[in-house]
Amino acid sequence: MPITMRQVGPCFAAEVDGLDLGKPLSRDEIDAVHAGMDRYAVLVFHDQKITDEQQLAFTRSLGDIEHSIGTSLRGPDEYRLPTTFADVSNLDKDNKVFARDDRPRLFGLGNRLWHSDSSFKVTPAKYSLLRAVSIPSKGGNTEFADMRAGYDTLDEETKAEIEELVCEHSQLYSRAILGFTDFTDEERLRFKPVRQCLVRTHPVTKRKSLYLASHAGGILGWPVPEARAFLRDLIEHATQRQFVYAHKWAVNDLVMWDNRQTMHRARPFPANEPRDMRRTTLAGDGPTAPQAAA
Ligand SMILES: [Fe+2]
User: How many Å apart are CA 26 and CA 286, to the nearest integer?
Assistant: First the structure.
């Protein structure tokens, strides 16, 4: 069956037919997936009744896995999934829904702010692959914004101003936006800021993107309030509705996005209902900016 990609919503998202992600992909199929990602940046695969192992195998066929270690407030003995997965569910290690005031849940609410996965790591993520195992009765959409369109529609003066800017990203910043500042000294050290370019160029298409996230809490050389006001304006610009695709999940959907070209956010859902979403992540090629001396 040939692979087809059909645009959904704004032009950066497409539904893919003709691929069974539970089976090993041929070289041609892998190339088609990468080409689709380069073109669209968000690909939707429906009705993929696959296991965790099959999701991992599909992810590995596309590149190197990024492990999730120490990026949440789950303790070492509180992981529900192996570190090959980012657990973006609202479930504890016994598959019970977190209490409303559990710290890992409150920390995880940061995913409701626009972000790019792992922009708080020195080498940020390339693709994320998120599979819906169980979904709530309502809400819980994931929204995506096209950062190429966000860049393209800036005026020339702003493009020139941001070309060389470097931002500082940390989960401490994104959580502080929601009033979550209750971190231990160990956590503050673990979540210390990293540097990311504000403008990224796609290695294949050469298109430029805004590289934004709610994790960005400063711009090198700028006063903090001015930087945050400026970044807030850029995010507001880049997430106008005409640049946004809202994905309404069905069980067994797998959605893959390019973190270099998009931002995304989770939308609210009833806090007492399970939402079991399992993310595998492809590692990026390297840092986007030189880091501060240790
Ligand atoms: Fe995310």
Answer: 27
